[in-house]
Amino acid sequence: MKTDKRDAEKIARCLAFRTYKPVAVPTEDTEMVKDFIRMRNDHKQALTKTRQQINAFCLRHKLHYTAGKHKWTQKHLEWLGKLSLDASLREILDGYLLTQNYLLERITQMDKRIEELSRTDKFNEKAKN
After folding, report:
1. Which of 49, 89, 111, 126 would give a disulfide with 85, using CB separation of 3.0 to 4.6 Å?
2. What does pTM read for this prediction?
3. How much of the chain exceeds pLDDT 90, in percent?
């Protein structure tokens, strides 16, 4: 069933009552920032997954953190670094920890870059809202 007439009437009502909001076509710069933020979110997801893998590794090997209430604190990371493991297991855990540290560093760098971008004239007004 064709709805052109009904659609036209609905558009006319929306225009008359000013219920439509203006829409901006994204620029290349805007798309670049969106992609950058998507990349940061992907890194956050990878960090979460890596931490889950470290937790699962510890559970499989009956390694329980009891020195504090919260994981991923400096104390918890020191505990992971000092665990007495055979060479193979130590290599695996160190690999996970290396990945976690890399992701944390990259996320910090990306946060700084996003902060810089938000201060540019193009995005300054939008960032305040």
Report:
1. 89
2. 0.76
3. 60
